[in-house]
Amino acid sequence: VLDEANTNQIAEVVNLYNWAKSKNYHFYALTSASAEPAKQFCLKYNLPFMFFASDQKMLMTMARYNPTMYLFDGAIVKDKWSGNHIPSVENLKSYLK
User: Fold this and answer.
1) How far, in Å, are 4, 9, 61 from residue 16 at the CA level?
2) DSSP of 25-86, one letter per residue?
3) Strand pairing partners for 30?
4) Tens-digit pLDDT profile for residues 31-68
5) How far apart are the C-alpha atoms of 46 and 58, rounded to whole Å?
6) For 62-94, what is each residue's pLDDT tens digit?
């Protein structure tokens, strides 16, 4: 749930979003929160992206930490990071060679 999310690295996530957008890479933010709390979270932290609704059980199965970031290549998970270890753009570039 969004009110339990670690928000310490929001700036890094926004930086990754902006980089991904500039490269035409897909970026999806998922939450099990309902639409209004998700919208308020985006406004509170001035996020340039919105959240997609997702099933809480599915998210808890995928990610043991809130938030968790995944890098996919099609249907293949290339890597994942907890909210305490959000990768830099340079780190992500090493996966995209």
Assistant:
1) 21, 11, 24
2) ----EEESS-HHHHHHHHHHTT-SS-EEE--HHHHHHH-SSSSEEEEEETTEEEEEEETTSP
3) 52
4) 999 999 999 999 999 999 999 999 999 988 988 888 89
5) 27
6) 888 888 999 998 899 999 998 889 999 999 989
